[in-house]
Design brief:
By secondary structure, the chain is α/β, with parallel strands linked by helices. The chain is 35% helix and 24% strand.
Amino acid sequence: MTHVPAQAHAHFSEAAAERRDFTAIAQWIAPGAKVLDLGCGDGSLLGYLRDTKNVRGYGVEKDDANVLACIKNGINVIQMNLEEGLAGFEAQSFDVVILSQTLQAMYSTERIVQEMLRVGKEAIVTFPNFGFWKHRLQLILGNMPVSKNLPYQWYDTPNVHLCTISDFDNFCRDHHITVQERLVITDGKTIHLAPNLLGSLAMYRFGNAA
């Protein structure tokens, strides 16, 4: 069993307190599930899921510093570039595959979503909603949006494929993807009315159409 330093558990709890989507993702995952987190960063989400849901988790990350952080935090991590696909993983080998706030940074968006559905029995994707009213206002004023969920300036952003909630709904429909649950939040609060306008972060749980 991998040893997890006590300070790592504290770090996972602090990260979850700052990221409302961590707790929402955890509600969608069964205890003891086998989980693959793509673009896992320092492993905070996997660590939180391991602590709260006893998942068997593996992360995929390409950044050297993040890989070292995962190892330090006791997270099982594989260093690889997601743009190259998930050929090393067998079909349906995970209960859940997660892509948390990384979709917008992918060049091959269509391919990675298809690979998630091949490798996992279901998938969870979260992304900042480019249609959020504060983003629209910044565009009207002549500037590229900068916000809590889109913290980068136009010249240093890793984001290449920003989309709105409506865009992703259309993507799922066009690719015959069955959306099982959708949650839209702003500042930790669930948004029900006009989510494409009032929601800052979108979360989807989905699978292949029957």
